[in-house]
Amino acid sequence: MATTILDTKGLNCPLPILRVKKAIKTVPVGDTLQVLATDPGAVKDFEAFCRATGQQLLEWKEEAGIFTFNIQKVACGARPQELVGELAVAAAVVAAAVRAASRRWWRRRKKTSAKAALKKTSMKMPKMWMTSSRTLSSASPNT
Question: Are residues 64 and 92 in the same domain?
């Protein structure tokens, strides 16, 4: 297994992550990418990056303000099982919210259409409103 070293010292978020995203494409599957960074927020960033992309964060350490991350490239499409579970739960929550919103919309629609039907039957329109558009256009002085 070979190790590729990527120096991102002096760069702040999100640049180290973007450089790693670009560099990990060139690393063969099973090899390790060693990242050097000085940004203290990089610890959470790289943990989240590895969770989201399916790469494996082997270890990270800090020495004299320099963070060292060892990331092993995993085969394409490989995702940790817990991430798949989280996505399934999120999809179920979204589906339930959509169903509830749809039910509320249909209930409101039924109520408003029932009220509109009552108004139409109980209210009589004057005869002058019931003329067709042809009669109105022929009666206008412009034509």
Answer: no
Catalytic residue at 76? no
The Cα 32–Cα 73 span in angstroms is 6
Neighbours of 71 (CB within 10 A): 26
Same domain, 32 and 90: no
Residues 6+ apart with CB under 8 A from 76: 29
The Cα 142–Cα 107 span in angstroms is 47
Domain interval for residue 47: 3-72
More confident residue, 15 or 135: 15
Q: How many CB atoms are closer than 10 A to CB 39? A: 19
Q: What is the pLDDT of residues 52-70, one digit of tens each?
A: 888 888 999 999 989 999 9
pTM (predicted TM-score): 0.52
Question: For strand 32-37 and strand 66-72, is the pairing parallel, antiparallel, or unpaired?
Answer: antiparallel
Q: Are residues 89 and 115 in the same domain?
A: yes
* Tokens linked to 1: 């297994």
Identified catalytic residue from 13, 43, 57, 74 = 13
Token representation of residue 90: 């999120």
